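Chapter review. Work through the record for Mandelate racemase/muconate lactonizing enzyme family protein before attempting the end-of-chapter questions.
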Amino acid sequence: MATIEKITLRMVDLAPKVQRTDAIQSFVSQETPLVTITDSDGAVGQGYSYTIGTGGSSVMRQLSDHLAPRLLGREAEEVEAIWTDLEFFTHATTVGAITSIALAAVDTALWDLRCRRAGLPLWRLAGGAKPKAPCYTTEGGWLHLPVQALVEDALDAKQKGFKGSKVKIGKPSAAEDSHRLGAVRDAVGPEYEIMTDANQAFRRDAARRRALALAEHDLAWIEEPLPADDVEGHAELARIAPMPVAVGESLYSIRHFADYVARGAASVIQVDAGRIGGITPWLKVAHMSECHGLAVAPHFLMELHASLVCAVRNGVWVEYIPQLDDIVGDRLRIKDGYAHAPDTPGIGIDWDEDEIARRAVAEFTTHL
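Structure tokens for Mandelate racemase/muconate lactonizing enzyme family protein:
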């Protein structure tokens, strides 16, 4: 066993490769906090999380001022105890996005360290359910794109072996959303999956109408049709919607997910390790979902989530949105539409340390 002796905090800002717009926002920046932990045996683990352009400085201050100092001297293998202690220590700001994102960067670093010390890849150490999982792509389904671009991207993805595409919804009328989805469905045929994402854009009345209007396109799910804190609204919609309801990217606690599961308010759980506080709570949500017969299809973070989806039996999809290409060497292997869980020890991310050092924002680089 070994104690934590050194912590390095950095943040890099990554610009998305394509324009990303949905029904409520457009973002051009991805702040990426990085936590590197070294133990007394010299073993090193590195973790991360992300924002979509705001809050990165607050996350870094939460890490440097409050969380990281409490790691020094702790037994690195006691990942559950550390996560619990840090969450309790920050209970005045928990549950909240800034705290959960900061916790995620710490927790993923601890899991990376644990896996490296054990000589095992994350997907095996965390469960080992399967070596690969199917991918769907979101990168060509953004709301600003014209219909022909949606069709061309979906056809290209299908030709490459992807099993589905996500199309953003939230146009001014249901008819326009339906027209866009209909064009994609006509092009790709009945076996290819089409996911939709409203990004919390609708009121309850509009969500009901939109779900019914889009039923003819045989959708894999309708994602975040309502504000994320409207659990009862999602429960009402789930009872009448012809397609599954997917929720999770904007939930920051296992207790939030427990509320959704208890009320039957979602049937596809999109728990995001970068937003719920790391791998430790992610696994709790995944196992809770399995106990209730629910699928897990996590939001974003494909480089990390590929391993987690493969770790659990009810992990069904990896969302293809390249996120870390600029700061990694070997990228996630995707073949014939399947993401293959990395077999190298650790969380499976081949960090390019030279590029990270070049891009690190000096103001937020801290050594403890």
